[in-house]
């Protein structure tokens, strides 16, 4: 998947970051991963997904991305357990 083909929104203004903060509070943490020097947390609220990139050394949020296309969940799929979902 190329970044050029991604349809996401970066949040940068104070209003956008406040919106992201409300998504974190109201959403559900569904995944985490490490990307270079960043801890990336994935949240879901209804059909909206949000990745929060936090610099591990400086302990600050450096990027927030929101998206609705489930194609971008691929980096998290191998860590998601379906054990409680599958019916025997």
> Helix tally?
1
The level-1 CATH class: Alpha Beta
Stretches with pLDDT under 50, minimum 5 residues: 1-8
Proportion of strand residues: 35-45%
What is the string of SSEs from the N terminus onward? Answer: EHEEEE
Q: Which fold name corresponds to the CATH topology?
A: Viral Envelope Glycoprotein, domain 2
Instruction: Describe the largest sheet.
Output: 5 strands, antiparallel
Radius of gyration based on Cα positions: 14 Å
Number of domains: 1
Widest beta sheet: strand line-up? 1-5-4-3-2
Label the CATH architecture: 2-Layer Sandwich
Cα distance, first to last residue? Answer: 34 Å
Coarse structural class: mainly beta
**Share in helix:** 10-25%
What is the number of E strands? 5
- Mean pLDDT score: 78
Globally, the shape reads globular
Word description of this protein:
The protein has one helix spanning 14-26, and strands at residues 9-10, 28-35, 38-45, 48-55, 60-67. The protein has one domain: Viral Envelope Glycoprotein, domain 2 (2-Layer Sandwich), CATH 3.30.67. The protein starts with 8 loop residues before the first strand and ends in a 21-residue tail after the last strand. The chain has a five-stranded antiparallel β-sheet, with helices on one face. It is mainly beta. A hairpin with a 2-residue loop joins strand 2 (28-35) and strand 3. The chain has one helix and five strands. The longest helix has 13 residues, at 14-26.
